[in-house]
Structures are given as structure tokens and as C-alpha cells.
Design goal:
It is a single chain. About 15% of the residues lie in helices and about 35% in strands. It has about 250 residues and is an alpha+beta fold. Strands 1, 3, 8, 9, 10 and 15 form a six-stranded antiparallel beta sheet that branches. It has a five-stranded mixed barrel with strand order 4-5-12-11-7. It is globular, with a radius of gyration of 17 Å.
Length: about 250
């Protein structure tokens, strides 16, 4: 799964890279983004324009009478998203990308940080695949944009920490993922396959328990404790318990 991530990247750079309009109210940089809060997502509207805009991280289907569902919706399995009522409409027509500088997973309550480091430079941005949906409490209420991050089975060394991982694609694949001209039945398998290659270049290390916010959260917990990408295998895993008319569909 993906229940916490870091968002340390330059919004103007990403907007320029994909020719996207930049929303003025994007959330601030954070190294402890959690479900229910605002995240930045990149999507393509009905007018064909791309936008980098804020969304609530926990998808709410438009038919839900309340904002609170009986089950978590900050993640959706790519294997079943097109069949599940909560995610089906979004999976068919409303795909998004969530830029991240890294994400966290837990093993026996011990958090690990996953990223794509570059020597002497900031980590490369991860392009996490997601879905979005518009929701409002009543016919007179304002529309709220909500989103979820897709996951799939973890592979390689990552599976030693958690059995699921976010679906992530190379930068070159982002336009196709966003495009409404590309069918989900084609792009979902391609994205899931691309995730295996992306996962192969990720590195991870244990970090201290996540409290507060700041770049110190992603620092390695004790350089001598474990080698990068080679955690101790002590079994098990556990996570913390823890509109715009042109865009709306």
C-alpha cells in the first residue's frame, strides 16, 4: 500500500514540463503527507488542458451521501479498480498522476523510506498513478476534487518490506496515462508492468518514527544499522493506524 509519502519538488518545474496550468493554492512541500489531507495531482480536463491542482487524498465517489466512507479509499488496487463500484467510473475516465519525492512503508511498525536517489542531486520525482473523482455534499454545495493512489503487488527487494507498492511510471509515460484518448484497459496493464522497472531502481532505508514534518524525516536511521536497500528480514508488516466545470466529469 502507500499510506504516507513525501512531496518535495518544484511545482513550476513540473507544470512547465507537462504544459500544465498551475493552481495557486497547491499544498506546501511536505515530508509527511497523510490520507485525508490535500495533495497535488496532475490531470487532464475535458478541454484537453492539463492542470496541477490540489485534491483531497481519499477518493469519494460522486454517489456517496457523505464524505466519510466505511472503508479507506486513499489506495485502490489496480487489479480490481475497474470493477469496484467506488473506483470504477474514475478508473475508466479520470486518471491522474501524483508527483512524489518518495514514499514510506512499514515493517513491524518500523518505517522505511523509498526513493529514486541521484548522486549529489535531489531525488528524482516519482510519478505515482492515481484516480480522481468530484464530490459534493448536496446540489448546492461546491465540488471537491478527491483522489486515490493505485497499488499493485510489490516485487524484488521491496516485497521484503511490504507486499504492496504504489503503481509508478516513467516520466515519458505520463502523457499517455493522463490522456482520455488512451483506454484504461490498455494503459492499466502497461502501467503495472512499467512499475516493475521503476521499482528496480528504487532505494530504501529505515527512518525514525514519523512525527511532525520536515526533511529530517527521510534521513536514514543509524547509518551503521542497515545497508541501503537491504533491511533485516524479521517477517510481517504493519502500517500505522493510522470545480471547475472543465475538469468535472
Amino acid at each position: 500500500m502507500c499510506g504516507r509519502f513525501a512531496s518535495d519538488w518544484d511545482a513550476a518545474t513540473i507544470a512547465a514540463k507537462f504544459g500544465a496550468e498551475l493552481s495557486p493554492d497547491l499544498p506546501r512541500r511536505s515530508w509527511n503527507v497523510s490520507p485525508g489531507g490535500n495533495i497535488a495531482i496532475l490531470l487532464e480536463g475535458n478541454d484537453g488542458k492539463r492542470r496541477l491542482t490540489p485534491a483531497r487524498w481519499s477518493l469519494i465517489p460522486p454517489w456517496s451521501p457523505t464524505k466519510t466512507l466505511k472503508y479507506p479509499t486513499f489506495n485502490a488496487r489496480i487489479e480490481s479498480a475497474m470493477e469496484k463500484p467506488t473506483f470504477r467510473d474514475s478508473a475508466l475516465r479520470m486518471r491522474a498522476v501524483i508527483p512524489a519525492s518518495g514514499y514510506y512503508e512499514w515493517k513491524r511498525k518500523r518505517p522505511y523510506f523509498f526513493s529514486k536517489p541521484v548522486a549529489n542531486k535531489p531525488a528524482e520525482t516519482l510519478w505515482l498513478c492515481g484516480l480522481y473523482s468530484w464530490w459534493r455534499a448536496s446540489g448546492t454545495s461546491p465540488w471537491e476534487l478527491t483522489a486515490t493512489i493505485l497499488t499493485r503487488d510489490a516485487v524484488g527487494p521491496l516485497a521484503a518490506i511490504h507486499d504492496r507498492m504504489p503503481v509508478m511510471i516513467p516520466e515519458s509515460m505520463v502523457p499517455d496515462w493522463l490522456s482520455k484518448q488512451v483506454s484504461s484497459s490498455d494503459i492499466f496493464p502497461a502501467a503495472s508492468s512499467a512499475t516493475e522497472e521503476e521499482a528496480g531502481v528504487l532505494r530504501f532505508h529505515e527512518v525514525k518514527p514519523l512525527r511532525g514534518d520536515g526533511p529530517e524525516l527521510i534521513e536514514r536511521k543509524g547509518l551503521s544499522e542497515e545497508a541501503d536497500g537491504a533491511p533485516r528480514d524479521d517477517g510481517g508488516s504493519e502500517e500505522p493506524g493510522d470545480p471547475v466545470s472543465l475538469l468535472r466529469q
